[in-house]
């Protein structure tokens, strides 16, 4: 299996990125978090046609903005409203690490691959491990094939047991995933085109059209060599790896909980209540009165919900068709590798 090309600035790997002192600070910060087990779809209505309700494979915590799975993940230009809910700021140790990563990206990435306003203002913290289900411990330490749709490079810091991270070709339309902490396709379906073992304290950065758009990525498995139990304590779960994925969501797309549309607010109210029980930030957000813009709105009826889902599905299909046509046209216009070499 090919390893990451070392000269490509849009795919970087650095072992031992996190110093011992920063690691200690990170561990203390993480140990005090209260991650959530989210459901993939809203529990207030049936899942979209052809989809099944399910829990995510792992508990998560978001910083900067929280992309609740049931609101659909941030997916510009299709979905940018009411899906990135303002969340707690980064702790000082993460701000320092982020400054270093941003400087590295600006120094090494081609300018065309870094949007002018790009900065790492969003962090998804994934907790990987095994879960107790019906009295048995079940390994759920993986993520299915998906893309991260936020604009610009994505960086990820790995802590704990090492993980096998793979890039894979996108499958035929409809078969491959777009997004999701949990992944629409199970890990392992298609052969990898690139892999990297992500070690304890390492940093990986990827961006540009190849790694962000053309390929999907996944976490195939996480080793269990050291029998680690990382904090925080999570009921019926043993964490052996924590990954912090850093991304960029434009500020104008991050919405305070009080400004969410009524349907979205209702969808995430229980999660907000759970978060608020452990976090002054979320307690304040929950106590804020709903924005005047939405206070008078009624939640949509079930039929309106269904129509909206259908419209979104249709628009996504049309966009995928267009993208596929464009790719095909580009391929036809392009001289083949051999003919390029001959000119
Ligand atoms: O855990 C990792 O290394 C990657 C996580 C990931 O792919 C994601 O959060 O989108």
| Classification by helices and strands | alpha+beta
Number of domains: 2
CATH homology superfamily of the largest domain = Alpha-ketoglutarate-dependent dioxygenase AlkB-like
**DSSP helix count?**
8
CATH architecture of the largest domain: Sandwich
- As residue ranges, the low-confidence spans are 174-178, 180-185, 296-301, 334-343
- Average residue pLDDT: 86
Give the fraction of residues assigned to helices: 25-40%
Main sheet overview: 7 strands, antiparallel
Oligomer: single chain
CATH top level label of the largest domain: Mainly Beta
Distance separating the two termini: 32 Å
Order of helices and strands: EHEEEHEEEEEEEHEEEHHHHH
Question: Which distinct ligands sit in these coordinates?
Answer: 2-oxoglutaric acid
Task: Write a compact overview of the structure shown.
This protein has eight helices and 14 strands. The chain is an alpha+beta fold and 343 residues long.
Please explain how this structure is put together.
The chain is an alpha+beta fold and 343 residues long. It has 2 domains: 11-255, Jelly Rolls; 298-328. Helices cover 29% and strands 23% of the residues. It contains 8 helices and 14 strands. The strands form 3 sheets. Strands 1, 2, 5, 6, 8, 11 and 13 form a 7-stranded antiparallel β-sheet that branches. Strands 7-12-9-10 form a 4-stranded antiparallel β-sheet. A hairpin with a 2-residue loop joins β5 and β6. α4 runs antiparallel to α5 (280-287). The model is unreliable at 174-178, 180-185, 296-301 and 334-343 (pLDDT under 50).
């Amino acid at each position: 299996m090919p390893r990451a090309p070392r000269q490509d600035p849009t795919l970087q790997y650095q072992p031992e990125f996190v110093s011992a002192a920063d690691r200690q600070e990170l561990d203390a910060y993480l140990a005090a978090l209260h991650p959530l087990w989210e459901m993939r779809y809203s529990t207030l209505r049936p899942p979209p046609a052809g989809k099944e309700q399910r829990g995510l494979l792992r508990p998560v915590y978001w910083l900067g903005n929280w992309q609740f799975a049931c609101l659909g993940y941030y997916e510009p230009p299709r979905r940018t409203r009411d899906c990135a809910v303002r969340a707690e700021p980064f702790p000082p140790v993460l701000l320092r690490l982020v400054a270093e990563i941003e400087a590295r990206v600006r120094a090494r990435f081609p300018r065309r691959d870094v949007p002018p306003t790009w900065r790492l203002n969003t962090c998804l913290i994934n907790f990987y491990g095994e879960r107790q289900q019906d009295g048995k411990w079940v390994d759920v330490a993986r993520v299915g094939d998906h893309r991260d749709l936020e604009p610009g490079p994505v960086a990820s810091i790995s802590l704990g047991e090492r993980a096998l991270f793979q890039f894979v070709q996108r499958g035929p339309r409809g078969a491959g995933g777009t997004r999701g902490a949990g992944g629409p396709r199970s890990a392992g379906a298609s052969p990898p085109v690139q892999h990297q073992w992500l070690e304890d304290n390492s940093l990986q950065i990827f961006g540009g059209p190849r790694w962000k758009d053309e390929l999907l990525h996944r976490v195939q498995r996480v080793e269990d060599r050291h029998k680690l139990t990382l904090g925080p304590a999570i009921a019926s779960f043993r964490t052996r790896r924590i990954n912090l994925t850093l991304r960029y969501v434009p500020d104008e797309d991050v919405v305070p909980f009080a400004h969410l549309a009524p349907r979205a607010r209702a969808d995430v109210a229980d999660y907000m209540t759970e978060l608020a029980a452990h976090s002054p930030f979320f307690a304040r957000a929950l106590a804020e009165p709903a924005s005047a813009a939405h206070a008078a709105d009624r939640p949509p009826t079930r039929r309106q919900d269904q129509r909206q889902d259908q419209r979104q599905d249709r628009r996504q299909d049309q966009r995928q068709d267009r993208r596929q046509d464009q790719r095909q046209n580009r391929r036809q216009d392009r001289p083949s590798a051999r003919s390029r070499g001959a000119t």
